[in-house]
Amino acid sequence: MNTTTYLAKSAFPLIFVLVPIVGALIRTRHSPSRQAALETWQRWWAIGALGCGSLWLTFAFVTVPDAMATTIGFTQTPFEFEIAFANLGLAIMGFRAASASARERVTIGLGAGMFLWGAIIGHLYQWIANGDHAPGNTGGVLIADLLFPAVMIILARSSQRLAAEEQPVTPALV
Predict the structure, then answer these.
(1) Which among 33, 49, 141, 174 would be 20 to 30 A from 149, CA to CA?
(2) How much helix, strand and coil, in percent to the nearest 5, is found in the chain?
(3) Would you call 173 helix, strand, or coil by DSSP?
(4) Would you tell me the crossing angle of helices 15-27 and 52-63 to the nearest 10 degrees?
């Protein structure tokens, strides 16, 4: 595999990071409030990153499991089918997060984090212990697996804080 092909395969997961960022930046240029802008960011991230990114992986692992296994640095096993449906669960959670409350988005982010951050540990272990430098093991997948849930949690917590700041304080009755 030449360097250009390696870099393209390695960087591909970052599309699901960049598209929501660009989309949210464009969409929020003239937002009427910080809360409206934050809501837009959360929806773009939920649908574009977690939803579409995970749905793409579902599709790829179901339709071309041998290519996906090679991209990760493994031989094909039934594991690819299991990963496909784990990603389908993440996609459904991502699409659900688009219309969820901030509290639900934190929970969805934590749920996604348990799978994706565990995957990071697995990728790093394969890299360090077995020298697996396949583009789907040590490239953009590490960044995407870190950011998909982390950004969702950060945006949702920011939304909760902003909502608390904007609530009017009513004087106590004596």
Answers:
(1) 33
(2) 80, 0, 20
(3) coil
(4) 150
CA distance 151 to 17: 10
Q: What is the DSSP letter of 36?
A: H
Rounded Cα distance between 72 and 59, Å, is 16
Q: 3-class SS at 32?
A: coil
Read off the amino acid at residue 133.
Answer: H
User: For residue range 112-160, what is the model confidence (pLDDT) as tens digits?
Assistant: 999 999 999 999 999 999 999 999 999 999 999 999 999 999 999 999 9
- Nearest-Å Rg of the Cα atoms of the chain is 19
pTM of the predicted structure, to 2 decimals: 0.91
User: What is the C-alpha to C-alpha distance for residues 88 and 86, in angstroms, rounded to an integer?
Assistant: 5
